[in-house]
Structures are given as C-alpha cells and as structure tokens.
Amino acid sequence: MKHEILDSIPFFSVLEKDELATLALHMEFHLAPKHGLIYTEGEVADYFYILSEGSIKIGTHHEDGREVIKQVLHPRMVFGEFALIGQNEVHHNFAMALSPATGYYRIRVDIFRQMMDKNPQLTMGVVSLIGLKLRQTENQLESLIFKDARARIIDFIIENANQCGRQVGLETLLKHSLTQQDIANYTGTSRQTVTAVLNDLRKTNKIYFTRSSILIRDLAALA
Known about the structure:
alpha+beta; Jelly Rolls; 4-stranded antiparallel sheet; 12 strands; 42% helix
C-alpha cells in the first residue's frame, strides 16, 4: 500500500527504488476521525504528511475567532511541506479531517531532510511545491479582491472538481465532505450566500447537489 501511494504521486517520481523503500520504511500510518485535528496552530512541525484517503482542510483562525480555510486537500496530496525548509518550525495553520475516516501517513522531518541532502532533485521538488502553494495563496487573495462572491464560489467548485472530480458521461461528479459553512470560510463569503449561489446554479441546471456531492452538468460551461 505504501509503495502504491508513493508511485501514484508525481512528487516522489525523482526517488530511486532504494530511496522509495527507505521512505516507505519511515512512513507512519494514522487515522483521524471527522473533525479530528492532525496538527494545530503553534504545534512544533516535526512531520511531513501524505494524505491517503479522505479529505482535510488547512486553515487558521482570525483574531475574532472566525475560521479561514486556505486549502482543501484530497487523496494523494502532500502537506506540511513548510516544515522541511525551516529550523524549529511551528505550524501557522491547523489541519483538520473532513471525512469520517481520514487516513494519512507522516514522515519525520529530520528523516526527510536527510533524503533531501542526498537527492538534489527531491530538494527542488520541495521548493517547487512550496512555490506552487504560494501561487495558490496569491490566486486566492486576488480572487477575494477582484471577484464577486458568486465567481469565487464557482471557482471553488471548478478547482475541486478538477482535483478529484469523476467523469460521469458528459457530467462531472464531485464527492466531498464539506459543509456550506466550509465553502463560505474558503471563499470569504457567508453560508447564506453559498446556499443562494448553489440554489441558483441548480435552478439554471448548471449543477445538481446533495449534502455530500455536486454534479456539474458541463464543467467548461460553468467556468
């Protein structure tokens, strides 16, 4: 199972067979219940993570207690990468399970850094991954500034459909564990606005949604 997961993630394609075997040896599997915290803000960042099943949200809390979601991650995604480039790092976000049984692997940062020291391509992969995450954060910020609430919600649906949606004929099925409040916390809107936009998209037959899925009639047309 460990090797299958590593083989399915492009990030690890730079590793040789012996390096993959070493990495698999140090991967610790854990299960988190729904709403279980994988790590918290301020916690020492000792591990790098691979999500194997379920979904999680990465976020933080505003001074007034409001939750801000920065990322929603799906299976075969890695996270906690910022710990790999700092010393005595602490998490500036929290990671919370969204699914009833969220499976993930963790690897000690010191072990992973040793592998980076021996494999420059792996180090470049980490740098590229961090660059990608920073660009995603920039795009999210630009969206908050320049796009209205409806456009942000539609962008969120499209982004997640592209990441983990499944083609069903000409339609795209997005299964998820998000509440409408989660979508609101990611898009910087309110739960009432999310409900109104989803209902409007359903009335115009662009989507059909239930509590745990969104069926997109035509992904290109939705954009």
